[in-house]
């Protein structure tokens, strides 16, 4: 497999074959993200991808899940993406699901019919980075989209019958907009009603615009307990139909997971207990936090 640069995948794709069909991220302007700064975005040619698939067939022919990387591989035009997905489907006879990263722009370039065509070929889940439900925060971090557009993108995925998994980022509003960020993100999760939502916490990456803003005193990262308060407020304001919510990513100080709304009060009680105790031993140590 000819991977270029560091490869990132969602935690739920840990057992998947990772197939890199794009290099980098087509947007690559978010101030907090350093994942793809060393890569110039490009779409790999079909023959490049086929070579990797042919190699993988020799060693993982009976793999059940494939994840299509890099940052937003869904940006590939439909006429080029369909043959790649078909290639993957044909190569692995026991394949149960194909996962892929998307962003608001790449999803909106696809019609519901386009997305249904991908679903028919095995695309079962799309991962979307929402980051915040506060438009002020999204503008400040150069997310390059609006809440209304993201809501429309989420609706298209759901209308196509594809599972929607979104991520949000605790601390992204800084100390200044901590409460607004948490409240509005919970409300936005309610609005788009995804099947899965994962909360990560801000980790400052050296060399990113966010790191420079911190040096200049323009941004202050909330304390661990402020991040837990954000988590509490976010969950309080999240009222989905039926959603699995988790903050068990390595970046978080307190891993929690729950089905909402069924286990909402139970998980809020757990968070409030930790906030009341203020016992550092209950939190993930700083040296164990990572992206």
Task: Describe this protein's structure.
The chain has helices at 46-60, 78-91, 104-108, 112-120, 135-140, 147-159, 178-192, 209-215, 224-236, 264-277, and strands spanning 17-20, 22-23, 42-43, 65-69, 97-102, 123-131, 163-170, 196-201, 243-246, 257-260. By secondary structure, it is of the alpha/beta class. It has a single domain, classed as TIM Barrel (Alpha-Beta Barrel), CATH 3.20.20.70. The strands form two sheets. It has an eight-stranded mixed β-sheet. Strand 4 (65-69), helix 2 (78-91) and strand 5 form a beta-alpha-beta unit. Helix 1 runs parallel beside helix 2, helix 7 (178-192) runs parallel beside helix 9 and helix 9 (224-236) packs antiparallel against helix 10 (264-277). The radius of gyration is 19 Å and the shape is globular.
List keywords for this structure.
two-stranded antiparallel sheet; TIM Barrel; 17% strand; 291 residues; eight-stranded mixed β-sheet; 38% helix; alpha/beta; 10 helices; single chain
Radius of gyration of CA atoms, rounded to a whole number:
19 Å
What would CATH call the architecture?
A: Alpha-Beta Barrel
H/E element order: EEEHEHEHHEHHEHEHHEEH
Number of spatially distinct domains: 1
Total DSSP helices: 10
Shape: globular
Estimated share of beta-strand residues: 15-25%
**Secondary structure category:** alpha/beta
Helix proportion = 25-40%
List unreliable stretches of 5+ residues.
none
Strand order of the largest sheet: 1-4-5-6-7-8-9-10
Q: How many angstroms does the end-to-end distance come to?
A: 23 Å
Largest sheet, in brief, is: 8 strands, mixed
């Amino acid at each position: 497999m000819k991977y270029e640069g560091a490869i990132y995948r969602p935690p739920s794709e840990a057992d998947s074959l990772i197939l890199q069909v794009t290099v980098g991220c087509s947007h690559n302007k978010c101030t907090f993200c350093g994942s793809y700064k060393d890569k110039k975005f490009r779409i790999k040619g079909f023959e490049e991808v086929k070579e990797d698939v042919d190699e993988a067939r020799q060693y993982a022919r009976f793999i059940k899940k494939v994840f299509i990387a890099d940052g937003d591989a869904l940006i590939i035009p439909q006429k080029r993406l369909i043959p790649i997905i078909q290639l993957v489907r044909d190569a692995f006879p026991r394949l149960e699901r194909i996962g892929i990263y998307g962003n608001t722009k790449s999803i909106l370039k696809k019609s519901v019919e386009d997305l249904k065509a991908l679903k028919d070929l095995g695309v079962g889940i799309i991962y979307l980075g929402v980051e915040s439900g506060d438009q002020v925060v999204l503008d400040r971090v150069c997310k390059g989209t609006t809440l209304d557009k993201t809501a429309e993108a989420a609706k298209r995925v759901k209308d196509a019958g594809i599972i929607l998994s979104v991520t949000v980022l605790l601390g992204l509003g800084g100390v200044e907009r901590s409460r607004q960020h948490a409240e509005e993100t919970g409300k936005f999760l309610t609005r788009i009603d995804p099947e899965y939502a994962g909360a990560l916490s801000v980790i400052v990456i050296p060399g990113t615009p966010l790191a420079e803003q911190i040096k200049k005193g323009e941004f202050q990262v909330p304390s661990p307990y402020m991040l837990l308060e954000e988590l509490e407020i976010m969950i309080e304001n999240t009222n989905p139909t039926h959603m699995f919510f988790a903050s068990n990513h390595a970046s978080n100080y307190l891993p929690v997971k729950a089905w909402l709304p069924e286990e909402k009060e139970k998980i809020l009680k757990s968070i409030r207990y930790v906030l009341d105790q203020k016992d550092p031993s209950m939190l993930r140590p700083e040296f164990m936090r990572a992206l």
